[in-house]
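Human:
Care to share another protein and its fold?

Assistant:
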Amino acid sequence: MRGAKQRSKLFACNTETFLKMKQNSAVYIITNKNNKVLYTGVTTELKQRITDHKNKKYKNSFTCRYNINKLVFFEAFSSIEDAIAREKQIKAGSREKKLKLINSINPGWKDLYSALL
């Protein structure tokens, strides 16, 4: 993975900038309504992917079974390779590290999906 200075900027709550820059790749963390279960994913179409989670498009998926559909964190990247590398880094971390990451940019654990619309 490229160094931290070369990595794309964090757009966790700044969705307006994310949409304006048209960066296609993103790593994201979603949770259930009680914020108990976390899921980390990567996509080239964040709005569509979160819509899929909310609509339970994949009926046998982990996110569907556990009602995980609240977007609480995302980072935008200019390349899918960088997004995948960041996803692996986040997934390798402990739950505590994921909680700190979410709390650092979204302490109220608000659903960021509505800002994507």
In short: The two ends are 31 Å apart (CA to CA). Residues 80-92 form the longest helix (13 residues).
